[in-house]
Amino acid sequence: MHPLVKNSIGREVPSYIDGIGKLTPFAGAFAHTTQKTNASLPASSHRPGDVKLVKSIREALEKSGLADGMVLSFHHHFRNGDHLMNMVMDQVAEMGIRDITISPSSMQSIHDHLIAHIRKGVITGIRTSGLRGELARQISAEGILPTPVMIRSHGGRPRSIESGDSKIDIAIIGAPASDPHGNVNGVEGPNACGSLGYAMADAAFAQKTIVVTDHLVSHPVHPVSIPQTQVDYVVVTDGIGDPKGIVSGATRITRNPLELLIAEKACQTILASELVKEGFSFQAGTGGSSLAVAHFLRQYMREHSIKGSFASGGINGYLVDMLEEGLFNCLLDVQCFDLKAIESIRNNPHHLEMSASYYANPHNKGCVAHNLDIMILSATEIDVNFNVNVITGSNGIMMGASGGHCDTAAGSKLSVVVAPLFRGRIPIVLDEVTTVVTPGESIDVLVTEYGVAVNPARKDLKDRFQDCGLSVMEIHDLKEMAEKITGKPRKPMVTEDIVGLVEYRDGTIIDTIKKVTT
Amino acid sequence: MHPLVKNSIGREVPSYIDGIGKLTPFAGAFAHTTQKTNASLPASSHRPGDVKLVKSIREALEKSGLADGMVLSFHHHFRNGDHLMNMVMDQVAEMGIRDITISPSSMQSIHDHLIAHIRKGVITGIRTSGLRGELARQISAEGILPTPVMIRSHGGRPRSIESGDSKIDIAIIGAPASDPHGNVNGVEGPNACGSLGYAMADAAFAQKTIVVTDHLVSHPVHPVSIPQTQVDYVVVTDGIGDPKGIVSGATRITRNPLELLIAEKACQTILASELVKEGFSFQAGTGGSSLAVAHFLRQYMREHSIKGSFASGGINGYLVDMLEEGLFNCLLDVQCFDLKAIESIRNNPHHLEMSASYYANPHNKGCVAHNLDIMILSATEIDVNFNVNVITGSNGIMMGASGGHCDTAAGSKLSVVVAPLFRGRIPIVLDEVTTVVTPGESIDVLVTEYGVAVNPARKDLKDRFQDCGLSVMEIHDLKEMAEKITGKPRKPMVTEDIVGLVEYRDGTIIDTIKKVTT
């Protein structure tokens, strides 16, 4: 058994886990603002005339010294169209290698393919922002992975890499375009995915970096997203990914009237905050109402001739339209969510690619998440202490992703969670969320279709909202209201086995995910 | 006294120096292709809402914890128009701080101003690519600096920073444009200098980074050359530099008939090498004949419809013309040499900014210098072993800069030194150069007005040149010829005191510079 300690939000978390090591309990969103850094750039022995092009993924892995127990990293810009991680892990299995920890920036249901490799001991560790589908279910309910999944936010991941907390032996970069020396970008080629923001820390700090491309171009490719100075080998192969898989339902503006109602209320809320003014900055996460807020905001900005400084995060076509309309000075893009965004980042110099570290790493000298005025967030669950869950369902099974949720909530001046009071028969506002991803101290406002609740720490906002005639309610009352409709929710039945660790962006453990009883 | 050892080219170099530490003798251009890396990204403690704007350079230095004995770094993109280093060091002196090592990427005669700070003990160490003027004379002839100047190449400098060999306490970035969070570029503002390539390693690895700008713009400035994630403080002040000082005589195509003759011969030489073909890459250093080679090359490329891949290094208007004419696919620019280059890097997406590490660091995973086909170099002196001096005059006094000389010579497929046999009464081809910056093994060809000499290691080239009817001579014969005209040169009279160490790009010591007797 692992020794357990209670962290500052009352969650019991382990202070040590075999195969992972010593862990620090969460102590508040800004309790650990600095940390010792011990990552250094990888050693190299490149000589003029050395050839980086190799014939196959296998050859690249062999030359990189792939061995049992190593950490392999991937990035998720192709989302559910990613073919590369499956392809590489098939190769790793074929080579007879075991005990690999994979460290993708996130995972989708296409990665259910990896279940067989987990069951055979090829993969024994996973570090990711999120996971879904059957893979997530088997880890959550069957405990097929020997060590807990380490859930990291999009800012926490580059922090862990750049600080040396998370060593990477071999980084695999899926490159829409590469030249023979390994300069890479995501905007050219038949399978352009746009920004390569999540892959940048990996390429910089991995001991070996392998670029896999289906579009080899003459040297030097430009723009350069990942430079040749960080790349050891280049492999040309068919079909690294399918950009059609990039677009998911989570990235379109909703037509659901309930979600639009919540979005409209959220827009009223942020207008009442008086933060929407010349030069303000804005981000909306994925999810039903979240993006729709941008839609209402857009009307207001037009009517009042307000131009924002930047919109950031994962970027979709709707934000591109706002940029082109002159409503923002620029877009800061860590990941393109649709083909229109890819087109824009290719052609518009005001649509900028940013690394995940630039986006949200809490331990560099100032990430963009810390410059946000307004952040619109979704929630799978939110509790009366404003803690938010976006990683497990109410059944306790992993089905989502940490993403930039806790990063932007902590960094923004105003963080607004938009969520319906219940989904189907499942209440969203609870006494206690199943899993805490974002601590309540980082959430300012909850907007539901029935009313708005304000974090007691933000009395200033509450007063302002009331002055504007918004119906402000206590979050406890919203919870009661939800329960009246859905009935008292049952907590998921879990064992004591830890199948997931939720790392806060600063490297501390904010919660655990337990194996559910089946 | 320092213990001395003979390095692989027979120069006696110290193995230890007080105040600098243990030193490794040069052992061949690629004897040390890897090295232990131990630099890590600096710790930070940035929180949302933290303000980086401070009122003065003094306040920024104080907040950065400036103390006796620290290392302050600077960059030389303003060349002889740089006002910032003088301004900062005046402030440091005024604060009563002593024993500072300055680490500029290079120094010009405008920095004669620092002599007073050296004489008073404010500055006790210098690491630079080069130095000139009265400052260089007083260090060389009067020994005013307590420790030897460490001469580093443009590739060796980022190597030393990224590897942790050269720690920087505070980096000072002169920024033509910055926003309040410290995103910086060199292409906007009244004093745009173009590329900020030399400053990039400093900003990334210095414990504290201070941006000093005379052009504050709204957040986020873009393009971003140095990101806010690396910047601690931003100071707005007048007149960081004068871009008119960027242009120097060394960056214009010569009209001197002798230099044009040498350039034409050099062009014949590189054509004979058969490397000038579709997709070839090219760089020409500064100096009389060097750039003129591009002029002759251009005619050939036009006539034969050849398009090169890239031209690199410091970029001038002549190369911009060639880019715009379609003769190169792109320019890779570490430093803009004139206003036309600045205009081009601002507007032309095929004119790319590159960091000094990307340009020439021998210990990353493949720098551009290692991709060069043809490199045209100048020389202050060259000896019968093809060793080249570009740092000291024949009188032994420092008057030049290492620059990218040894980096590109080592990396390119064909390195051609263009030099007249003598300048005034001073022979250029000698038995032994005063100071070795680039080892003879990296130089393939010497082109003079009297004939071409080929390094015996490149018999392939010699055969090819002779087949093409070029007048190939032995370098010893060129030397004799020079001596016949100028008389046997006298060696500079030096003491045993070491006033400069010439570090080879890989971190080993290739030569020393001795104090001259006056």
From TrEMBL, chains A, B:
The entry's cellular-component GO terms read: ATP-independent citrate lyase complex; cytoplasm
Tell me the compartments it is located in.
Cytoplasm
- Alphabetized GO MF terms: citrate (pro-3S)-lyase activity; citrate CoA-transferase activity
What are the recorded Gene Ontology BP terms? acetyl-CoA metabolic process
Gene3D superfamilies attached here? Answer: Glutaconate Coenzyme A-transferase
Query: What PANTHER family is this protein classified in?
Result: CITRATE LYASE ALPHA CHAIN
- Identify this protein by name: Citrate lyase alpha chain
What is the native source organism of this protein? Tindallia californiensis
